[in-house]
Amino acid sequence: MAKIASDVSLLIVCRALNPFVTRNLIEVRAGKRRPIQGAATTRIGDMMRELHKQDREFGQRAVNNILQNIFDGYEEDGFVTNLSKAFLVQGKYPTLGALSNVLRRASREV
């Protein structure tokens, strides 16, 4: 069964999380958007726990929006993937690369 390409998965994750980090995770090279060098090692575990805490405290939906943006990005490329919000906010994926790899392994073509 076909899986989404690693570089596409990482770009989707970068797009979804870019508004929540202190540096731009995406650059344009040769007219194409791509993750910046080193994007995969960007740490996100603590950030996801903190966003979840703030979502609960202030009635926001940042984590839900991140997940939805990831799922939408996969769908735009003809794939689906699965990830539990609970796993995301528990910090089980400490970096963007770790999250991207888990999502890619769970992906399937539609």
* Helix content estimate: 40-55%
Mean pLDDT metric? 95
Oligomer state of the chains in this structure = single chain
Spans of at least 5 consecutive residues with low confidence:
none
Q: Gyration radius, to the nearest Å?
A: 13 Å
Question: Could you give a short description of this structure?
Answer:
This protein is 52% helix and 11% strand.
What tags apply to this protein structure?
single chain, 110 residues, mainly alpha, two-stranded antiparallel sheet, 5 helices, globular
How would you portray this structure in words?
The chain is mainly α and about 110 residues long. The chain has one domain. The protein has five helices and four strands. It has helices at about 5-15, 45-60, 60-75, 85-90, 95-105; strands at about 25-30, 30-35, 80, 110. The strands form two sheets. The protein has a two-stranded antiparallel ribbon. A two-stranded antiparallel sheet has the order 3-4. A hairpin with a 2-residue loop joins strand 1 (about 25-30) and strand 2 (about 30-35). Helix 1 (about 5-15) packs antiparallel against helix 3. It is globular and about 40 Å long. The N and C termini lie close together (about 10 Å).
Secondary-structure blueprint:
Layout: H1 6-17, E1 26-29, E2 32-35, H2 45-58, H3 62-76, E3 79-80, H4 85-89, H5 96-106, E4 108-109
Antiparallel strand pairs: 1-2, 3-4
